[in-house]
């Protein structure tokens, strides 16, 4: 390592608004003295004008920003950013005035306007970056003097800010021919499920060029690069006025073979482009969509970072004077040359996670949760023996394949706005920002979390960096209090306390997400706070998580900078490593799978892994040595740490588990064990494969002893809360506390950068490091989960309902995460075609995680049908059904229902248990006439696949899995992939166990009657919100009619009754039972109605059955209710039941179209899911394809996106080709297919597939003979089309078909565009 002589270290966290800087100076005795300063990240300093004379100004500046002669050569700017002149000299004339400000007289080289008046705010600009400014101020070195030799470690949000503001470099992307629109399409899902105005993230490249040439999935060459065409295109681009600064290259399957990318890079450089980034160089991993986004991100940010890094280094004295290192998102420090754009986006927050690890190790805990609370949001991170990392993240809508700290962000920061909406209390996600800021800033801002703490006496207003306005906070709280419904009787202070509880719940749920996803029990972990606002909420968040231990670091407010300073220097390298590690074990005849023997790893595979791991580690160490100029002392065993890991997964799944490579012989068994530890079960009957090798080499920082420079306030005094009626809490200055001192809550401990609130029931103890250890010694009475059992009503119902609603919603979301991580099929895991929900014991929906809209509100029908079938349930039971006429949607959607028992002996009639949790997953194969289980010509339910009508999976202690497997295997049309069915069913079971465990835990900490009462209140509140919206509809009926492609009408009449506050939705006039599968069921219609209500109401409705209480739904027998009653359906065999497979995916969208058309709020979107099914007797593959979104009065329709009743992702092209006998030839936007209008409809997609062997191909679509309607004078969107291409001859196909294709045949699908809104502009 470069050992340039230095006695000064600089550590800084450069945030979006502020920069925290620590300067460490070595003393003569070998210890280090540490000083800190917070400055604006702009590097600017505000100065108030006191007096103006000819050529001279007297200004007031905070004392920390003043030293003799410091500002000489700086610029002075007026309030309207006009430069007044350059400072020739500056003189300190008064160290501190009555307001604690230093008075400085400055002389300018130029004259300035005489119109300046005292009191205006001027700006001093030294033309240096924030960390350089802070360093000079701390060291007392004026701008004109040289800095001493420095070791500098920085974390920066410069890359993140450039990404968020789209302020990166002009970038061009070179991508395989046929995929120019790949980044615009992404994964085709929309970011906001219920937004009619769909706003998709804009791709980063301004120019995209297609590269002729193609590799196969195994990396072999199918078509060489057309060098001439590529060279001509780049030559033209180099001469164009839109010449990019940097070129990104990402070609299909380059992770398998980088030859084509390297060839294209050579051509790019020959065309005169110096900055080139290729995907095989920075992210050689499968899946082209995230790899292309990572590559373009790196290219987009690289010039911005290079310029910034060079500027900072020069201002610190240049390479000869400054050893500069930068924090990466993965938690290691790198040189300036190695600091890449993709590694910079979590540079600052990563420092906090490094500090979390160091704190956890120092206090000897195996698990810790970091709570980093700032002004707009709170970041939650974890440590469980190692800091939590993710290998893929999404930042500002861009997927990034790079090691990053596992940080979960929620919109609960100090500036989060608190208010009342439709009778419900909300906290965030909107923030007051820095301007106007919270109400207490005195600038007319709204009520925020900061204001709550001010009003409640939790934030000492005299300890804030500037004076806070208590009265402004009280007035804002009073205004919100007046908006409460009359049935909520609570005082303003109680309301403030309630908002605080809601905010704490949001933060606690984020911690639950981070820890449960990793298989950690958060109750056994330690909570560590950092960021300026975390200490004020630390104890409360710990209580909400049932944690008993928390730690407050003396530098909690600047802990990210501390972590950056103590982070290791290191490198992480990864390489694709695709090997079959171990074959599946064969199950014995026992009902439950038992391992007959440990898995064995073939010797050649073990040798390959060992060799590849050793080579990768050697390369990693060598790169570290070369970049850091390491000596043998730096790489000895005392300081160098290495780790080689491998990502492993079950074959067919996509999400891997990272394990250490050694010992290789136990790798497969360790995979089973880790999977079981994380998810509750292993899958020994599935083979295991390796995916990625990863090597990390780090050099630990030297241990140091620091002396913090501080000015203690030795007075222990009570905080004065002025006129507050709240009892004051004792307040202590942290600097005055000594080792061993204990403080019982309630108390407030202040320090220069943060506030710590010790709650009642907690004890704070100062340890030898001056860290404060917080321990809970009694149960708090604040927590909503500790209300006495007999107190079923209270003044805090509104608050407690929000807390419980958020927790139950979090349970449903956590269940979905379990399914995503543990499922096997591409359709469930990759496309995320599943939903999860929580119900009361009578089947009433109380929380539905918004995964797939067509499942919304629909599972309750299945739960109620299950109650009828199994009135006697017991703990451990689990049930399964896919019967559309027993509450289901269509046969591929399999619902797993788990009853939840919370120890209650007495229940209401019809309640076989206390709660239910359920999940519904779309299985791409469930039998039927054609592979994929969606037969276009099916005439009855039996033609569509295996029917599982209200069957037990586990019942009265006995497993029925073998019976389910037998039924799937032996039906008239059996499933073609029973193992995959059973694996995805197991994932749903695991989700049910997780959901049941979480609800049981919540009922244990609350009382069951109280929990039930609050959830019933949620249903009431949802009903009232719906009623308020109905009042806005007037009293005139509204009618709309549309049709299916064969002319079958779909008709609806809405009749609002504003007096009774009810809405009649009547589908009379809709057509009869359909001869094929376009029939829908009542549950599908219910889901469509709930989705539309959620989209059109002005505020967020809870996704629960209460929304439908004000709706009178009239569905006549026919297309939308083919059997008419449940009694009839129970007596029918599958052969006697109408086919329904398309009702769920196609007719549901037409129901949405007529409802939106009736309300006149949006033009029709594509109106189909474009269902594509491919397979043979060995497999079935299913995908749905997006199209154009309908325009609205305020926005054009989005291109190439899933709309309305689905939001599933489309399989990545490289995953598709690597797993299936298919080659994707084209995937793009269907230009000009959206309807014209004042706001244009979105364009559809074009998807062209080549088949590599004989297969059965089926499609079920709509909007081929009808067009998505325009509205308010807008034009219709173009209908869809599909063509079979054989030997160069195109044949147009029907809207629904099933055909046999041969190797070399192609299918081109052109999906519909959306309708336009308003007359087209001339």
TrEMBL record:
Domain Hydantoinase A/oxoprolinase: residue ranges: 291-567
GO biological process, alphabetically ordered: glutathione metabolic process
One cellular-component annotation, GO: cytosol
Signal peptide start and end residues: none
Ligase is among the record's keywords: yes
Start and end residues of each Hydantoinase B/oxoprolinase domain: 797-1320
Location of the Hydantoinase/oxoprolinase N-terminal domain: 150-271
Sorted UniProt keywords: Ligase
Pfam families in the record: Hydant_A_N, Hydantoinase_A, Hydantoinase_B
Protein family: Belongs to the oxoprolinase family.
Protein name: Acetophenone carboxylase gamma subunit
Organism whose genome encodes this protein: Neorhodopirellula pilleata
Upper lineage: Bacteria, Pseudomonadati, Planctomycetota, Planctomycetia, Pirellulales
Protein's gene: apc3
């Amino acid at each position: 390592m470069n050992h340039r002589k230095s006695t000064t270290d600089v550590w800084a966290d450069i945030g979006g608004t502020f920069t925290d800087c620590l300067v460490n100076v070595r003393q003569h005795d070998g210890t280090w003295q540490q000083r800190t300063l917070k400055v604006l990240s702009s590097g600017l300093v505000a100065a108030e004008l006191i007096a103006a004379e000819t050529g001279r100004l007297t200004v007031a500046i905070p004392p920390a920003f003043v030293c003799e002669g410091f500002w000489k050569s700086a610029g002075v700017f007026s309030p309207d950013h006009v430069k007044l002149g350059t400072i020739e000299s500056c003189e300190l004339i008064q160290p501190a005035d009555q307001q604690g400000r230093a008075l400085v007289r400055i002389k300018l080289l130029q004259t300035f306007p005489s119109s300046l008046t005292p009191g205006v705010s001027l700006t001093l600009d030294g033309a240096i970056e924030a960390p350089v400014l802070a360093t000079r101020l701390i060291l007392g070195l004026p701008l004109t003097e040289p800095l001493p030799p420095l070791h500098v470690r920085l974390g920066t949000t410069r890359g993140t800010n450039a990404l968020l503001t789209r302020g990166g470099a002009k970038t061009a992307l070179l991508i395989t021919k046929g995929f120019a629109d790949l980044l615009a399409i992404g994964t085709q899902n929309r970011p906001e499920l219920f937004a009619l105005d769909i706003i998709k993230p804009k791709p980063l490249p301004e120019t995209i060029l297609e590269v002729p040439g193609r590799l196969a999935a195994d990396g072999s060459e199918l078509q060489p690069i057309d060098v001439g065409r590529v060279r001509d295109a780049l030559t033209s681009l180099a001469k164009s006025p839109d010449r990019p600064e940097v070129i990104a290259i990402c070609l299909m399957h380059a992770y398998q073979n980088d030859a084509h990318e390297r060839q294209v890079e050579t051509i790019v450089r020959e065309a005169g482009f110096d900055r080139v980034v290729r995907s095989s160089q920075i992210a050689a991993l499968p899946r082209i969509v995230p790899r292309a986004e990572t590559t373009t991100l790196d290219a987009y940010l690289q010039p911005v970072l290079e310029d910034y890094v060079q500027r900072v280094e020069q201002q610190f004295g240049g390479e000869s004077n400054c050893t500069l290192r930068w924090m990466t998102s993965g938690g290691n420090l790198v040189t300036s040359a190695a600091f890449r754009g993709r590694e910079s986006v979590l540079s600052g927050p990563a420092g906090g996670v490094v500090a979390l690890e160091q704190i956890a190790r120092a206090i000897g805990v195996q698990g810790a949760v970091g709570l980093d609370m700032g002004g707009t949001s709170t970041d939650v991170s974890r440590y469980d023996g190692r800091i939590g990392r993710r290998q893929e993240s999404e930042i500002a809508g861009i997927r990034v394949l790079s090691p990053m700290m596992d940080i979960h962000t929620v919109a609960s920061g100090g500036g989060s706005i608190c208010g009342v909406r439709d009778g419900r209390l909300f906290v965030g996600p909107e923030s007051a920002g820095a301007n106007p800021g919270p109400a207490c800033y005195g600038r007319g801002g709204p009520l925020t979390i900061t204001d709550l703490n001010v009003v409640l006496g939790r934030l000492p207003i005299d300890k804030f960096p500037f004076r806070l306005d208590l009265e402004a906070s009280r007035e804002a709280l009073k205004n919100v209090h007046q908006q409460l419904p009359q049935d909520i009787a609570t005082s303003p202070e109680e309301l403030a306390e309630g908002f605080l509880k809601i905010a704490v719940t949001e933060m606690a749920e984020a911690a639950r997400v981070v820890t449960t996803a990793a298989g950690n029990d958060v109750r056994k972990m330690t909570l560590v706070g950092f960021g300026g606002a975390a200490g004020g909420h630390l104890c409360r968040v710990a209580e909400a998580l049932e944690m008993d231990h928390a730690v407050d670091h003396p530098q909690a407010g600047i802990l990210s900078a501390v972590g950056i300073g103590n982070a290791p220097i290191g490198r992480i390298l990864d390489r694709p490593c695709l090997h079959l590690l171990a074959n599946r074990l064969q199950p014995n005849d026992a009902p439950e799978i038992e391992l007959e023997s440990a898995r064995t790893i073939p010797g050649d595979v073990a040798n390959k892994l060992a060799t590849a791991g050793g080579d990768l580690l050697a390369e990693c160490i060598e790169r570290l040595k070369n970049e850091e100029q390491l000596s043998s002392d730096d790489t000895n065993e005392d300081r160098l740490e290495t780790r080689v890991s491998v990502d492993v997964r079950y074959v067919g799944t996509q999400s891997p588990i990272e394990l250490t490579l050694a010992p290789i012989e136990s790798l497969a068994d360790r995979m089973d064990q880790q999977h079981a530890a994380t998810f509750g079960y292993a899958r020994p009957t599935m083979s295991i494969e390796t995916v990625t090798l990863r090597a990390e080499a780090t050099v630990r920082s030297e241990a140091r002893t620091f002396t913090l420079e501080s000015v203690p306030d030795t007075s222990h005094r009570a905080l004065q809360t002025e006129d507050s009626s709240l009892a004051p809490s004792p307040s202590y200055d942290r600097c005055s506390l000594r080792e061993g001192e204990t403080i019982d809550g309630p108390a407030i401990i202040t320090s220069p950068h943060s506030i710590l609130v010790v709650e009642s029931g907690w004890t704070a103890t100062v340890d030898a490091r001056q860290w404060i250890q917080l321990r809970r010694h009694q149960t708090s009475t604040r927590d909503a989960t500790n209300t006495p059992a007999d107190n079923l009503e209270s003044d805090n119902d509104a608050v407690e309902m929000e807390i419980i609603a958020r927790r139950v919603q979090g349970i449903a979301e956590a269940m979905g995460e379990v399914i995503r991580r543990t499922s096997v099929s591409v359709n469930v895991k990759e496309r995320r075609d599943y939903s999860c929900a929580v119900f009361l014991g009578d089947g009433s929906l109380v929380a539905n995680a918004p995964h797939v809209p067509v499942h919304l509100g629909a599972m309750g029908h299945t739960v109620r049908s299950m109650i009828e079938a199994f009135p006697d349930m017991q703990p451990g039971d689990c049930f399964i059904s896919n019967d559309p006429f027993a509450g289901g949607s269509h046969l591929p959607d399999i619902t797993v229902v788990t009853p939840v028992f919370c120890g209650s002996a007495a229940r209401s009639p019809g309640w076989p248990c206390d709660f239910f949790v359920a999940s519904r997953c779309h299985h791409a194969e469930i039998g039927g006439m054609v592979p994929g289980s969606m037969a276009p010509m099916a005439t009855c339910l039996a033609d569509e696949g295996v029917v599982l009508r209200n069957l037990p999976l586990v019942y009265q202690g006995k497993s029925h899995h073998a019976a389910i497997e037998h039924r799937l295997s032996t039906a008239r049309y059996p499933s073609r992939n029973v193992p995959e069915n059973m694996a995805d069913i197991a994932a749903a079971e695991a989700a049910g166990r997780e959901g049941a465990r979480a609800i049981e835990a919540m009922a244990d900490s609350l009382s069951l009657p109280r929990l039930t009462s609050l959830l019933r209140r949620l249903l009431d509140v949802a009903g009232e919100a719906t009623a308020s919206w109905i009042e806005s509809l007037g009293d005139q009926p509204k009618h709309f009619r549309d049709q299916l492609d064969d002319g079958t009408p779909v008709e609806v009449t809405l009749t609002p009754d504003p007096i009774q506050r009810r809405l009649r939705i009547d589908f009379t006039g809709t057509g009869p039972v359909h001869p094929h599968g376009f029939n829908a069921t009542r549950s599908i219609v219910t889901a469509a109605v709930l989705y539309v209500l959620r989209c059109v109401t002005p505020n967020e409705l809870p996704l629960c059955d209460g929304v439908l209480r004000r709706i009178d739904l009239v569905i006549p027998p026919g297309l939308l209710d083919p059997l008419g009653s449940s009694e009839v359906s129970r007596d029918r065999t599958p052969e006697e039941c109408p086919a329904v497979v398309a009702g769920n995916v196609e007719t549901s969208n037409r129901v949405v179209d007529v409802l939106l058309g009736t309300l006149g709020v949006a033009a029709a979107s594509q109106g189909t899911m474009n269902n594509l099914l491919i397979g043979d007797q060995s497999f079935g593959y299913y995908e749905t394809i997006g199209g154009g979104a309908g325009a609205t009065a305020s926005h054009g329709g989005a291109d190439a996106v899933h709309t309305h009743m689905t939001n599933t992702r489309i399989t990545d092209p490289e995953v598709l080709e690597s797993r299936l006998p298919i080659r994707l030839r084209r995937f793009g936007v269907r230009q000009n297919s959206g309807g014209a209008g004042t706001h244009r409809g979105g364009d559809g997609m074009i998807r062209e597939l080549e088949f590599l062997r004989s297969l059965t191909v089926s499609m079920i679509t709509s909007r081929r003979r009808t067009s998505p309607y325009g509205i308010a004078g807008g034009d219709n969107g173009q209908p869809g089309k599909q063509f079979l291409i054989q030997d160069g001859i195109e044949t147009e196909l029907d809207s629904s078909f099933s055909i046999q294709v041969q190797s070399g045949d192609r299918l081109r699908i052109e999906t519909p565009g959306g309708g336009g809104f308003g007359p087209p502009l001339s």
